[in-house]
Amino acid sequence: MAEATGNSEGPKLATDAHVKYVLSLDTKTDELDYWMTEHLRLNGAYWGLSALHFLSRPEALPRKDTIDFVLSCQHENGGFGAAPGHDAHLLSTVSAVQILAMVDGFDELEARGKGKAVVGKFLADLQNPESGSFFGDEWGEEDTRFLYAALNALSLLGLLSLVDVDKAVAHVVSCTNFDGGYGAKPGAESHAAQVFTCVAALAIAGRLDLVEHEKLGRWLSERQLPGGGLNGRPEKQEDVCYSWWVLSSLAIIDRVHWIEKQALINFILNCQDPDNGGFSDRPGNMVDVWHTCFGAAGLSLLGYPGMEPVDPRYCMPKKIVARVLGE
Amino acid sequence: MASHGVTRTVRTRTEEQRLQDLEKIKKYRHLEIQIRTQVATGTYTLDLFELTTKLLRQNPEYYTIWNIRRRCLISCRLSGAADQTASAAQDGTSDTKNQDSDSQVLQSEIAFTMPLLLEFPKCYWIWNFRQWLLAQAIQRLPLPVARKIWETELGLVSKMLNKDQRNYHAWGYRRLVVVQLESSELDGKSMAEDEFAYTTKMIRQSLSNFSAWHNRSQLIPKVLEQRGADDKARAAFLGEELDLVRDALNVGPEDQSLWYYHQFLVSQIVGDGNKPSITPALTVDEKITYLKHEIDEIKDLLEDYDNIKWIYEALSEYTVALERLQRTDSNGAEAGDLQVFLSKLRTLDPMRTGRWNDVEQLAS
């Protein structure tokens, strides 16, 4: 395999345009969509900030503003809502923790926020003591996404000991299917995004020995379609975000060489809007910050030159995860 | 924030359109602020409830508003605490009245989410809210009424799956509804046979529906157990399933869904780690016989289709599995076959060359 680069014939990464696109997101207050998507604001901040990191422009967003916004979303119980005035939810809480980790802002969480311990308690209280799985909030939706998200944030906070990790691990194992993949719940069909959450959760828990590497690698590698992109389930279309879920899972189980890297690089690059920045799900579609994050993360993992290396377990810069975990 | 399948267009707004947008934002924000102001007072009133209706019709992704709606329902639309209703169920007319009104409220809530679900079939929050309503029905309503509501829900899921046969939410929700309908809470009994028949129906509509094949694989152990199937019946069942999927492969050898289901059946023959198999009594010799037969049947496909990688992939996988069962080393007759399959795979599927290399290395 040739060194992973933008094929000299093919498209190039439009770094400046992407940075400009991410920075423009918070200025579109005269568009209805800006207000209609407020329930994803904190997640959006994580997607945008991590994209900037992967593009090697981590300083592009002002650190203080970022921390101020994150802390403005926190509730008394330690959990974070998607924006001020939105209810606390596990998903936005994890985004808050990831952002604070990226801007090295845990001190500010202690000084001006409710502190790490309260956040840890909020997350730990969402574990279902019977199944080991996690709820998204007080209303009780359960899904392996939440389990992964909780382990992700708790490990970054250094508070994994607050939850029953063994029970969480056993729950993940109960979601394994005959094809080596994982579903959202026991008995659910294998799905690339759920595979990522389960495999990354096991990686964080230090239990990759429980993953059936050969079988799972087989299923994951079959997700690559002739156009180079990856799909999320058999007989579905390829998509930049699924490309990340599959690729990161392959990386965690050390099987990235089971797909064609250059073809995937080209697919992702073909999904960028080279003029106005941002990535879309498939070539020629509307860009958004979600696909921009996972497009950039994918290119980073594939070794595209000039990018900040990504940790496949956390979808955050490797060096930041290493600093926070003390690895 | 995450758009899928929307064509990229250059959006330019005229000043007039921009002003129209600003007007829409003003109205939306006004509604949102009204809600927040009321929530801040800590009272969840009928008025607030009506406001959530307005907002959710515009934006069903706004999860906090669904939560506010739940709080309104609990404090001003549904009767007192759920456990009180249940414990005093045999008592007087006021409970009957409460149950009637709870039933009406829950049914009208279910109806409220219906058009939203049809418009936004992948919105988690709508599914969650419905699930909450249905759980309330069990807690608050007489059993036959609650059961009827859950049965209607199963009908809805079928409708959703007719529109989008692979909808991941809908399949997950279907399993959840079935578990509840089977439970003693709803005086239920196993629906494994019906659900198994449903997967047959869905597969007949589209052989590529892996979600249906998957659900079938989940149901088989239950069906066999309930039929009281002995080893012979289990073997016969396995044979029928193998025939079913092989017939499908004969006309659609490029369909991954079929290959995955075939792989599932083979995993039942050779054993899948510590997991229980649908044919637990097979001896090693029987397993070998089955596997050799499958390999031969798949080789027959090559007569009609010699350029389809899936065939070679299955052959190489099953050959490796056969070697393991026979405990033969790589000098056996199968090893030569494996080389042929892998070299075909390298030509037909060069994207996964790294994998074919690893398979070869592992086998030698």
Automatic annotation (TrEMBL), chain A:
Residues in Prenyltransferase alpha-alpha toroid domain copies: 13-316
Cross-referenced InterPro entries: PGGT1B-like, Prenyltrans, Ptb1, Terpenoid_cyclase/PrenylTrfase
EC number: 2.5.1.60
Swiss-Prot/TrEMBL cofactor(s): Zn(2+)
Transmembrane segments: none
CC terms in the record's Gene Ontology section: Rab-protein geranylgeranyltransferase complex
Keywords: Metal-binding, Prenyltransferase, Repeat, Transferase, Zinc
Example GO molecular function: Rab geranylgeranyltransferase activity
SUPFAM superfamilies, A to Z: Terpenoid cyclases/Protein prenyltransferases
Listed Gene3D superfamilies: 1.50.10.20
A Pfam family of this chain: Prenyltrans
Catalytic activity from the UniProt record: geranylgeranyl diphosphate + L-cysteinyl-[protein] = S-geranylgeranyl-L-cysteinyl-[protein] + diphosphate
Keyword Transferase: yes
Keyword Oxidoreductase in annotation: no
Superkingdom of origin: Eukaryota
Cofactor note (record): Binds 1 zinc ion per subunit.
Sequence similarity: Belongs to the protein prenyltransferase subunit beta family.
UniProt function note: Catalyzes the transfer of a geranylgeranyl moiety from geranylgeranyl diphosphate to both cysteines of proteins with the C-terminal sequence -XXCC, -XCXC and -CCXX.
Protein name per its UniProtKB record: Geranylgeranyl transferase type-2 subunit beta
TrEMBL record, chain B:
Cellular component annotations (GO), alphabetically ordered: Rab-protein geranylgeranyltransferase complex
Protein name (Swiss-Prot/TrEMBL): Geranylgeranyl transferase type-2 subunit alpha
Catalytic reaction equation(s): geranylgeranyl diphosphate + L-cysteinyl-[protein] = S-geranylgeranyl-L-cysteinyl-[protein] + diphosphate
Keywords linked to the UniProt accession: Prenyltransferase, Repeat, Transferase
Family listed: Belongs to the protein prenyltransferase subunit alpha family.
Function: Catalyzes the transfer of a geranyl-geranyl moiety from geranyl-geranyl pyrophosphate to cysteines occuring in specific C-terminal amino acid sequences.
One GO molecular-function entry: Rab geranylgeranyltransferase activity
InterPro entries reported in the protein's UniProt record: Prenyl_trans_a
EC number(s) on file: 2.5.1.60
Classification via Pfam families: PPTA
Biological source species: Trichoderma harzianum CBS 226.95
GO process annotations (BP): prenylation
PANTHER family associated with the record: GERANYLGERANYL TRANSFERASE TYPE-2 SUBUNIT ALPHA, PROTEIN FARNESYLTRANSFERASE ALPHA SUBUNIT/RAB GERANYLGERANYL TRANSFERASE ALPHA SUBUNIT
